[in-house]
Each structure stands twice: as structure tokens, then as C-alpha cells.
Amino acid sequence: MKKAIFGGSFDPPHLGHLEVIQQTIISLNIDKLIVVPAFLNPFKSKSYAPAELRLKWLKAMTKEMPSVSVSSYEIDQNRSVASIETVRHFKDDDEIYLIIGADNLEKLSQWKDFEALDAMVTWVVATRDNIEIPQKYISLNVNQDISATQLRKQIEEAYLDKSIAKEILDYYQK
After folding, report:
1. 102 SS3 class
2. What is the C-alpha separation between 71 and 172, in angstroms, rounded?
3. Which of 16, 29, 36, 160 has its CA at 20 to 30 Å from residue 60's CA atom?
4. Tens digits of per-residue pLDDT, 14-28?
5. How many domains, in total, are found in the chain?
6. Tell me, what CATH number does 42's domain have?
7. Residue 7 sits in which domain range?
């Protein structure tokens, strides 16, 4: 079985995340895509929306996608979880694709146990901010020029999935 794991803060989940999910299903020959919201990103000191709420939003956003499952694994740990732990949790004997945004490439070698993680996964890098993706990675073409950081500064409904837009707008406008 071939699986892909797409982790992140998803604070909030937006159309860029949705396009990564859709392009993964279209572009990669996988059996399952596991979306894993972080309890707390290991490189961040806080989240804005509570983990359970971000999990709920992601489940709503992907409910019509049978090959996608949203996992509470990292949230259930109630702490920051390194990607290698998540990959080990889901790996079994499966081939694993690990999806990241191009903005993560600069710090990738700083990830916990990077060499071991690198040996366990096939990297898939979603395009972002015109960052050049080295040929050793699979490139995933994503045409959404938005980030969760930008959205938190100025929340715009146009960048949110319709099924969760009102709830996200209400939450971040408080």
C-alpha cells in the first residue's frame, strides 16, 4: 500500500491546503492520504485555534474525499510531535510519501532525526512563493498564493473552503 502524509498546523485550513490535498490525489499513485494536524508545530511556540477545532475543520473540508483521512494522532499526543514519530506511527510496511510546503525546505535538515526520516520517506514538495524545488524531490504544483499566517492577519472568505468558511471567519475575527 502507498500512503501519503500531509502534516501541518492548518491554523486555519485554507484553499492552499485543499489544493495540496487535491493535487496529491491526482498526481501521486497512492491508496490513501493521511492529513495530520499538529497539536503544536515543533518550530512554533503557539497555535491560534485549538487543535480540536482545526481537526474538526479539516474533517469537514475533506469529508467528500474517500481516499483522504484526517488523523488526530499528533493531537492525541497532547504535545509537539516530530514528523519522524508520525511517519513511524503510520509506516507499517507501506511506502510513504511525506508532503511538505516548499517553505519548509530551508530548515528541513534541522528536523528531528532528519537522516533517518529521509531514508524512510519519499519527499513531495508543494510549490510556494516561487521557491525553487531541487530535482531530488517530487514537485507538487499548487497555484494558491496564500498562507495561514497571512490569513490570520487579514481573514478573507475567498481563501477558505465554503463548508467551513463562516466558522473560521467567526473564530479568527474574535
Report:
1. helix
2. 23
3. 29
4. 999 999 999 999 999
5. 1
6. 3.40.50.620
7. 2-173
